[in-house]
Amino acid sequence: MQLLYPAFLLALAALAIPIIIHLFHFRRFKKVYFTNVRFLKEVKEETSNRSRLRNLLVLLMRLLALTFLVFAFAQPFISKDEDIQQGEKYVSIFIDNSYSMDALSSDLSLLDKARQRAREVVDAFGEEDRFQILTMDFEGQHQRLVSKDEAYELIDEVNRTPAVRTVTEILARQKQVLDPPQNGQATAYLISDFQQNITDIESYQDTTVDLSLVPLKAVQERNVSIDSAWFDAPVQMLNQTNPLVVRVRNYSDEAAENIRLSLNYEGQSKPVGTLNVPARSAVQDTVNITIRQTGFQEARLQITDFPVQFDDTYFLSFEVSERIQVLAINEEENNRYLDAALGSVPSFELINQRSQNLDYSSFPQHQLIIMNDLRTVSTGLASELQQYVRNGGNLLVFPASDAEVLTYKDFLASLNANEIMNLDTTARQVSQINTEEFIFRDIFESRQESLKLPATTANFQTTSYDGRPEETLLTYRDGSSFLSKYTYGEGKVYLCTAPLSGSYNDLVRNGEIFVPMLIKMAISSADDTRIAYTIGADEVLESNHQVNSAEIVYKLSGEDGEFIPQQRTLANKVLLNTNNQIGSAGFYNLYLEEGTILDKFAFNYDRSESDLRYVNAEELGDRFGEDVSILQAADDAVLTARISQETQGIPLWRWCIILALCFLALEVLILRFWRA
Predict the structure, then answer these.
(1) Rama region for 75: left / alpha / beta (φ>0; ψ in -120 to 50; rest)
(2) Angle 17-21-23 from CA coordinates, rounded to 5°
(3) Core-most of 13, 22, 376, 526, by most CB within 10 Å?
(4) What's the mean pLDDT in 355-364?
(5) Distance between CA 422 and CA 401 in Å, rounded?
(6) The domain over range 533-604 is classified in CATH as 2.60.40
(7) Where are the beta strands (DSSP E) in 592-627?
(8) Positive/negative CA dihedral, 268, 273, 278, 279
(9) How far is residue 24's CA from residue 10's CA, in Å, rounded to a whole number?
(10) Counting Cβ atoms within 10 Å, is residue 110 exposed (0-12), middle (13-18) or buried (19+)?
(11) Alpha carbon distance 260, 283 (integer Å)
């Protein structure tokens, strides 16, 4: 047996008080005269002996009561571990408040159960001990040690959060508060469902902090979520049907049937249909959206699933321009085939400019720039086009038949594209079309043998470098390229090896290829445009709007109110850092002046919490090792007594109090019923 506070044993000196009272307590006798006391002699002797025995028993009861009362304050305990430390304790308690904790235990949600377990942990320690209450949010107020009462208040304030941290990050955060070592015992508790996606630790080795795990388990590990969504085409067209692809994932081991999917768009909620999702797999469905107005658009996809619902809604936003602008840079006259091809499409606007009178500042406004048979590429034009493509623009190059090859070689090399060489005047026929690539995908309902492919009377030979990856779109019969695609920066370069002039190339007269090719190239300029972001994962936003002034302050407003993000300009874009200020899924508007929206962003919760597969207690023991304690208890069990035994051994102070009260009760009974 050991004592938690042995200094209290000094109070045993108080045992002298009842002894002194007993020794110096002389009972006063009253004289009574009798005519003959001979008959009382035996009675007097018997009464005196009984009185002396009674007083000794009373003294013993008082001494025992006082002794056990002193021992109660010294807090004796039977140690199960010889290494149990005495003195003040520093306790860090992590409460998992991620969205996976919405799952249900037998009687409460896992988050409510985690709060309950945290209170029980605090109950197991003394008033003088200090506590850290840590959550997934990693807030500044949680990076300090507080009193017992403050710990209860912090536990009550814990709410669910979209933040997701790994066990390694959590342990490191706890150690920051518990280190450097305090003058006492450092203990850490992790109360979590221990999902597989966050339990990244393989072995735990830390002798400075005693670690205990409190795993919580849901009654039913079932969840279906909207995993992601994307448009089939990078740019959404006005007054046309735009296919939106939706992926719904089933995270359970049982098939999910009749999952209802709905779309909320333009203030109306429309049912899309029902889905059957096999176990541990995903299915895709297509939702057709007809856009009838320009500007920023909001849409929300939703399914019905219980009890985990944070991932049942998927927010997305996109912008629809009134017209898609295409710039044609001409050497001399406009190309009438280009005018005819794009002029007939209502949502397109073709702008022609001469190469000698270009407005470079207007380049970013165009989704596609076409170099129409230019003889030479000046260094100024090459520099501006390089920047245009790097920032996400699309460039289609048709070299002139009498092109200055050296200027083209330098220009194409700067774009990481293969270079043109000599002009070959051999007549050739295009024989293959790449229908797997976006430009020609889904254009033809079926590949007909009668499909007429372009033919040329002259074309440029090109170099072939391994460091300049080429994706061929149209190929000659001999395997050489007629039309190729290259990626540079955030944009794309399309190189045709034949001039655009009808004298050398009949592509301009092939409407079933030429027209859709131009349209798809123009709308592919937004191939990487984000329609949705993930809270916590995507902290940097990118907007094409820029004002050249250091005093301009951009603001974001949405579900979490209004705040000013960190911002910096880059070329014609502004980069915004949210710094974890977005905590709720929904739509957030970017503006400089109230009422004028410059951009719109849709944020969704991280789907990593959707997978409800957990690491069980046996696996936790294997991963963390024998030095880590795993506290398992039934839902209706209380951890306080068990933790007290783990940290202090078997406490005996309650028994000391009970025995002290028993001895006082015996004293009362002796005084009341034992007549001397």
Answers:
(1) left
(2) 115
(3) 526
(4) 91
(5) 10
(6) yes
(7) 597-604
(8) positive
(9) 24
(10) buried
(11) 13
Cβ(318)–Cβ(531) below 8 Å? yes
pLDDT tens by residue, 214-228: 999 888 778 999 999
For residues 236, 239, 241, 243, the Cα torsion angle rounded to the nearest 10 degrees is 20
Strand ranges (E), 22-175:
76-78, 89-95, 130-135
CB atoms near residue 474 (< 10 Å): 22
How far apart are the C-alpha atoms of 298 and 245, rounded to whole Å?
16
The listed CATH number (3.30.2010.10, 3.30.365.10, 2.60.40.10, 2.10.109.10) that belongs to domain 224-321: 2.60.40.10
Q: What tokens were used for 632?
A: 């398992």
Query: Please, is 279 exposed, middle or buried when counting C-beta atoms within 10 Å of its C-beta (0-12, 13-18, 19+)?
Result: exposed
Say how far apart CA 51 and CA 32 lie, in whole Å: 19
CATH number for 324-526 (one of 3.40.50.880, 3.10.180.10, 3.30.390.10, 3.40.640.10): it is 3.40.50.880
- 103, 309 contact by CB (below 8 A): no
Q: What is the pLDDT of residue 87?
A: 62
Q: Which residue has the tokens 């207007």?
A: 362
Q: What one-character DSSP code corresponds to residue 647?
A: H
> How many other β-carbons are positioned within 10 Å of the β-carbon of residue 421?
14
Which residues, in sequence order, are bridge partners of residue 562? 557
The CA-based diameter of the chain, rounded to the nearest angstrom, is: 163
Residues in CB range of 479: below 8 A, 6 or more apart: none
Q: Would you state the structure tokens that stand for residue 378, as one six-digit string? A: 């000046």
Task: Say whether the peptide bond before residue 180 is cis (omega within 30 degrees of 0).
Answer: yes
Domain ranges of the chain: 2-79, 89-220+612-648, 224-321, 324-526, 533-604
Cis, bond preceding 6 (omega within 30 deg of 0): no
**CATH code, residues 89-220+612-648:** 3.40.50.410
Give tens-digit pLDDT for 18-57: 888 777 664 445 565 655 555 555 555 556 677 778 888 8
Residue that wins the pLDDT comparison between 632 and 25: 632
Q: How are strands ordered across the β-sheet holding 573-577? A: 540-543, 573-577, 566-570
Structure confidence at residue 385 (pLDDT): 96
Q: 89-220+612-648 and 224-321: same fold?
A: no
Residues across the chain: 676
| CA trace torsion 517, 520, 526, 527 (10° rounding) | -90
| Rounded distance between C-alpha atoms, residue 654 and residue 631, angstroms | 24
Contact partners, residue 671, CB within 8 Å, separation at least 6 = 58
**Tens-digit pLDDT profile for residues 171-196:** 999 999 987 655 678 899 999 999 99
> What whole-number distance in Å separates Cα of residue 448 and Cα of residue 450?
5
263's CB contacts (< 8 A; 6+ apart) are 269, 270, 272, 287, 289, 299, 300, 301, 302
Residue carrying structure tokens 């830390």: 206
Compute and round to an integer the Cα radius of gyration of the chain: 41
Tokens of 266: 């333009």
The DSSP output letter for 377 is -
pTM of the entire predicted model: 0.73
pLDDT digits (tens, 9 = 90+) for 439-487: 998 787 655 556 889 999 999 999 988 888 899 999 999 999 999 999 9
Instruction: Specify the 3-state DSSP secondary structure of 379.
Output: helix
Q: Give the relative orientation of helices 405-414 and 379-390 as an angle to the nearest 10 degrees.
A: 30
